[in-house]
Structure formats: structure tokens, C-alpha cells
Specification:
The chain is mainly α and about 80 residues long. It has 5 helices and no strands. It is about 50% helix and about 0% strand. Helix 2 packs antiparallel against helix 4.
Length: about 80
Amino acid sequence: MESLIEFGSTKAEKPILFYESDADLVMISQSRERLSKFYRFVIPESETAEIFVDKVRFLVLSRDVGLPVPETVFSSADIELP
């Protein structure tokens, strides 16, 4: 975080910040106020970002809004799969 802020603070114009992973999305979402002073980025509201990285909640949201989703199977470590 400090490296991002240090880099962004040296630029005359705010650079664009891209995220590539769920971890990046969560980090930027949780630090959006600090980072928005130094970067331009598009990111969903905090609650929506959390849904995006929680695969079960994202599945429920997808079904609720009518998005096509592949068949999903949940398993636990205590069951044996064929």
C-alpha cells in the first residue's frame, strides 16, 4: 500500500490503477479513500466487491439477477466424490 501511495504521489496526473486478482480487488476496495487521492480506478461499492470475491454469494447473486451460471456442485472434505 505504501509503495502504491508513494508512486502515485509523485505523478502530476493520477495514473489508472488496475486490479488483477480477488486479493487486489479487496485491497483497493478497503483502501479506496486513500488510493482515490492518487489514482483513478473503477471499482464496485464495498458490499458488491465482497460478493464478487465470495464465490457462493456471487452464485446466489447471479441466479437472483438471472445471469446464466454453470451447474454448481458444493462439496466438503468429509464426503467422498465419485
